[in-house]
Amino acid sequence: MTQEKAVVERQRDAGRTRTELLDVATEEFAENGYSGARVDEIAARTRTTKRMIYYYFGGKEQLYLAVLERAYAEIRAAERTVDVDHLDPVAAVRRLAEVTFDHHEAHPAFIKLVGVENAQHAKHMNHVARLVDLNSSAVDLLRGVLDRGRAEGTFRDDVDALDVHMMISSFCFFRVANRHTWGALFDRDLLDESRRGHYRTMLGDLVTGYLRK
């Protein structure tokens, strides 16, 4: 093996190791919170050492922040797959809402991580400027669609993009986060596959109904 190939292979191994550590750390922090998560457990589950984790990330807090950053980057990346410029504003907003709906359902660990950080008053998140930039992009994307809708006379003039983002996020978050308590109280599983299409359409109708003149 040439020296160049050896370097590439080491980089690939490092990338795979880092990804595996983030995968397991995501589960550990989501299930046990920041205080309850154990770096030793993450090391054991990835068949590595605490020292190796610190080599890649620097420490427990840095690992947790890397988990948060990746979790938010994934939902923002999913939103960017929507070609909003080639959809009419109503269809674009509905599609963005559906992307959030699908993502939150498929990533329950993300919901738990957000709950963990809220329980800590976002004390870790406040120190990561990239998270602000990542999430501002979601609002900017919506703002562009809303501007087009207003210009076409389809959307109300008093609509705030951050409010729309909150409306979409709250519906999708509640459906996953409150699944068990809602089921205990009302005997209805919010993730019941037979009602999935109903809730997905309901979200789109709520958001576009709010926006229309």
TrEMBL record:
Residues 15-75 form the HTH tetR-type domain. The keyword 4Fe-4S does not apply. Pfam families: TetR_C_29, TetR_N. Keywords: DNA-binding. InterPro entries: Homeodomain-like_sf, HTH-type_TetR-like_transc_reg, HTH_TetR, NicS_C, Tet_transcr_reg_TetR-rel_C_sf. Residues 38-57 bind DNA. Signal peptide: none annotated. Gene3D superfamilies: Tetracycline Repressor, domain 2. This is TetR family transcriptional regulator. It comes from Actinoplanes hulinensis.
